[in-house]
Amino acid sequence: MNAIQFDLNLPKYTLAKALGRYFPSLFWHSQLSCVKLKKQEDLPLRHPDWVKIEVTYSGICGSDMNLIFLNDSPTTSPYASFPFTIGHEIVGKVIEMGENVKDIHIGDRVVVDPVLSCESRGFHELCPACQRGDYSLCENMTNGDISPGLLIGTCKDTGGGWSSHLNTHKSQVFKLPQEVDDQNGVMIEPFSCALHAVMRNKPKKDDTILIIGAGVIGLCTVAAIRALGYDNHVIILAKHGFQASLARHYGADNVIMLTKGNHYYEDVSEALQAQLLKPVFGPPVVQGGADIVIECVGRKSSVNDALRLTKSGGKVILLGLAGILKDIDWTTVWLNELEVKGSFAYSTEMYEGQPTRTLAVAIDLIKKGKVNLAPFITHRFPLHQYKEAFTVASTKRKGDAIKIVFEPNAK
User: Fold this and answer.
1) pLDDT more than 90, % of the chain
2) Residues 317, 197 contacting (CB under 8 angstroms)
3) Is residue 397 scored above 80 in pLDDT?
4) CATH annotation of 201-342
């Protein structure tokens, strides 16, 4: 089968890192690239508890592009095994099962929770995090029956979504009801990231929420807030007009367009009813701000904005994929006694009075008609057009691109 794989090669990594800033397509076009479309043997099921999935759609995530552009922090490298097939946003159908799999059937349409935690790794005694239901914080991501990997899409033994098939443990498989089509199905993973951030940081009744970034995760965060029934005032910072339109569609009250420099601070301050103060030099200082700021970009400028635009005693949630960021001004964390929290992936939430896996929450909200995520999908590509797909993903403004997906088994 065909698979788009990442194989860490230090000479190629070094050369692409040096030259890619001038010629971005080198990261996937040339012999310098660590990314290749390869022929691969179909992986056999590893264990009677495992399931083989034929992939219908697999999304291109911002974290995937971060990997391709070689921007990942070395901190994450022990939690991967090379070469791995990329792709962790997955919807497909079951085509093979181990003998211990009882509640899943051939032909079932399913989504995959890609987190490779204790149960997937063959541990019968779960680590403390998995016992709590915090699977994304598992302490055994490098141990057990399979090679290191935080997720399917970073582990060489499972395959990944950017191929025709992959293998997964039965505990990671969630069946889709007929009310949830495949376009919504492929969005369940990124939507679950947003749900996890919101459900672990529930807004109070009168809290104002500022979302920084109107890419997929920022827009999913707006959709999550509304699908969960919160009527808080929601403000979002958007870079492009098509993002702004979708933000309004999903329920943002104010959409503020980012501009060069810090001119958008005036609009944000007005929306937040905050006071804008001018320092001796540097960006404006905001007196007041949002009760909750959810940062969905992971860049130096967006993190600095998040810290500056949060009111005294407020909370900053870092949901965007942040790596090694230089020149972050942490003054406001101290000065305004801010609470700063990270949010990674998804796990278990309290939903309708019961502990429920985040992906199951997402499926139920879509099934009940609380949200329709299909409008996110703007582009589809077969695997062999991966270069065109990455070009669109890296220049979203030119194609009004939101979510780009692969169709590995498209005829």
Assistant:
1) 87
2) yes
3) no
4) 3.40.50.720
The helix or strand, by DSSP H or E, that contains position 90, with its residue range, turns out to be: strand 90-97
Going by DSSP bridges, is the β-strand pair 165-169/254-257 parallel, antiparallel, or unpaired?
Answer: unpaired
pLDDT in tens, 72-127: 888 999 999 999 999 999 999 999 999 999 999 999 999 999 999 999 999 999 99
The domains of the chain are located at 2-188+354-406, 201-342
- Residue 397 to residues 194, 208, 241, 266, 393: CA-CA distances in angstroms? 23, 29, 9, 24, 9
Distances (CA, A) of 336 to 89, 290, 304: 38, 12, 14
pTM for this one? 0.96
Same fold: 2-188+354-406 with 201-342: no
Residue-wise DSSP of 195-248: HHHHHTSPPPTT-EEEEE--SHHHHHHHHHHHHTT---EEEEEESSHHHHHHHH
Look at the domain 2-188+354-406 and name its fold.
Quinone Oxidoreductase; Chain A, domain 1 (3.90.180)
Q: Please, which residues bridge with residue 351 across strands? A: 354
Structure tokens at 126: 């779960």
- In angstroms, rounded to a whole number, what is the distance separating the alpha carbons of residues 289 and 285? 10
Contact 373, 223 (CB under 8 A): yes
Judged by DSSP in three states, 25 sits in coil
What residues contact 131, with CB distance under 8 A and at least 6 apart? none
